[in-house]
Design brief:
The chain is an alpha+beta fold and 235 residues long. The protein is built from seven helices and seven strands. A five-stranded antiparallel beta sheet has the order 6-5-4-3-7, covered by helices on one side. Helix 2 crosses helix 3 and helix 4 crosses helix 6.
Length: 235
């Protein structure tokens, strides 16, 4: 069994046994690998966002939260590749990191045969990107969390003239365009709404303070001619 198939099988094994804990030794014997290999596989799944919990000591082992995992999905290989193409375009977006973990969960939840076919199909897809742009900058994870939890965030920001400032802001929305991603926020230093290019954020620190509720529509009242603001359609 190759590693991809084993990772899929581990998730299904833990889902089937939940809430009972399964030891690394049991899993190693079942898949005919070393305990260390199982520990590395479990660590990789955890890093990818699979909700696997571990208890140490006698009677301990691994268990999986069924409520937070996907059952085997009926994605065709072509559908999975279509999702992968869409998520690959999330580079530089506020949720690029989450896009990677989402794709991993989708592939892990597919059947082994469909997952293998999807990988073979994906290997025939290529993207043409500018030289030197292999690792586009992405929004710091702290900005994603600030929007999600509605927390005040302290930014170190460089404006178009190269001037660097530090300011506390109340994040409200992310806006994407063909030119990149922008954070719309209430800037406490300026006492008003400001729009920050996320690729100009040098540092970001999440503060303990909860930001007051601010209507997103009130902060989008000067849209450039020829543009409209469209919310993300979630269906």
């Amino acid at each position: 069994m190759n590693r991809t198939d084993r990772l899929y099988a581990l998730v299904e094994e833990l889902r089937a046994c939940a809430p009972r804990r399964v030891s690394a030794r049991e899993l190693a014997a079942r898949y005919e690998v070393s305990v260390r290999t199982i520990e590395r596989d479990i660590a990789a799944l955890q890093q990818a966002g699979v909700p696997i919990f571990a208890d140490v000591g006698r009677g301990g082992g691994y268990t999986l939260d069924k409520c937070r995992t996907l059952p085997p999905l009926n994605f065709t290989p072509a559908e999975a590749v279509a999702v992968a193409i869409t998520l690959s375009r999330a580079g530089g977006s506020p949720y690029s990191r989450s896009a990677r973990t989402a794709l991993h969960k989708i592939v892990t939840a597919m059947s082994a045969a469909d997952s293998a076919s999807a990988r073979e199909l994906a290997d025939r897809i290529r993207f043409l990107t500018p030289a030197g742009n292999d690792d586009p900058s992405s929004v710091p994870a702290v900005l994603e969390e600030a929007i999600t939890t509605r927390r005040v965030v302290r930014l170190t920001y460089v404006d178009r003239t190269g001037v660097e400032t530090e300011r506390d802001v109340e994040p409200v929305t992310f806006t994407g365009s063909g030119k990149g991603w922008y954070l719309t926020a209430w800037c406490r230093m300026r006492g008003g709404r400001r729009i920050f290019r996320t690729d100009r954020v040098r540092r970001a620190a999440l503060l303990e303070e909860t930001a007051p509720e601010r209507a997103a529509e009130a902060l989008h009242d000067d849209i450039p001619t020829g543009y409209v603001v469209r919310p993300l359609e979630f269906i």
